[in-house]
């Protein structure tokens, strides 16, 4: 009787073949593209993308969860306005700018994304200000979220057209430091040094006559806060 000798190389080859087969056959297609949403994508995350873009005035189509040509153009418009690569694809950077966290399951989670997006706004608008002034800037965003006169999400308020200078000039995409992140979290936890103010500006640099007509309630650092 002839004994068959199984070499280690043969075992490795068999295992690799099985692994490749399993990956090709059993890995869901959506997992392979979980971090990228583009024309042809569908689902709940696409609806989230469309709704955010619609709230901010970039998208005017139906919120149907189908990433079509109108959604692509809206994404490109958003990318152009925010200093991102203009390709019409919602990947890691564009999703982060929208305040969307893309998970491997394709779901959108906004809890941690809201903190980070708010911290980016604080860092862009108020770095160098005293800590209480940074919390105050974050609080103004949250006061707007609660006001019926503004969008009802953090991302919606921040990306409302022409609402914040740092969105227009691209500073919103800077990486926030630990102080800005803590200030955002403190505001989210309920600290409002402005006592309900909806606006702020720097009197030394502001050129908008409209904002100067607002009633000033208090000053913190270089900013005045008003209603």
Automatic annotation (TrEMBL):
Coiled coil: none annotated. The keyword Hydrolase applies. Pfam families: Hydrolase_2 (PF07486), PG_binding_1 (PF01471). Residues 128-226 form the Cell wall hydrolase SleB domain. Keywords: Cell wall biogenesis/degradation, Germination, Hydrolase, Signal, Sporulation. Residues 42-98 form the Peptidoglycan binding-like domain. InterPro entries: Cell_wall_hydrolase_SleB (IPR011105), Peptidoglycan-bd-like (IPR002477), PGBD-like_sf (IPR036365), PGBDSf (IPR036366), SleB_dom1 (IPR042047), Spore_cortex_SleB (IPR014224). Gene3D superfamilies: 6.20.240.60, Cell wall hydrolase SleB, domain 1, PGBD-like superfamily/PGBD. SUPFAM superfamilies: PGBD-like. One of its GO terms (molecular function) is hydrolase activity. GO terms for biological process: cell wall organization; spore germination; sporulation resulting in formation of a cellular spore. Belongs to the SleB family. This is Spore cortex-lytic enzyme. It comes from Candidatus Stercoripulliclostridium merdipullorum. The gene is sleB.
């Amino acid at each position: 009787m002839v004994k068959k000798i199984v070499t280690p190389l043969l075992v490795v080859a068999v295992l690799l073949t099985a692994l490749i087969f399993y990956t090709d056959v059993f890995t869901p297609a959506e997992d392979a593209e979980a971090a990228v949403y583009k024309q042809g994508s569908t689902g709940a995350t696409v609806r989230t993308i469309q709704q955010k873009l619609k709230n901010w005035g970039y998208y005017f189509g139906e919120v149907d969860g189908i990433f079509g040509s109108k959604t692509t153009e809206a994404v490109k418009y958003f990318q152009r306005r925010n200093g991102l690569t203009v390709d019409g694809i919602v990947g890691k950077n564009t999703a982060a700018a929208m305040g969307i966290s893309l998970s491997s399951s394709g779901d959108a989670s906004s809890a941690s994304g809201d903190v980070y997006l708010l911290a980016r706004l604080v860092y862009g608008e108020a770095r160098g200000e005293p800590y209480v002034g940074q919390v105050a800037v974050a609080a103004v965003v949250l006061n707007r979220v609660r006001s019926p006169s503004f969008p009802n999400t953090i991302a919606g308020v921040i990306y409302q057209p022409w609402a914040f200078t740092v969105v227009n000039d691209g500073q919103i995409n800077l990486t926030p430091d630990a102080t800005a992140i803590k200030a955002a979290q403190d505001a989210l936890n309920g600290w409002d040094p402005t006592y309900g103010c909806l606006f702020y500006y720097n009197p030394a640099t502001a050129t908008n006559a409209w904002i100067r007509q607002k009633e000033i309630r208090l000053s913190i650092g270089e900013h005045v806060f008003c209603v």
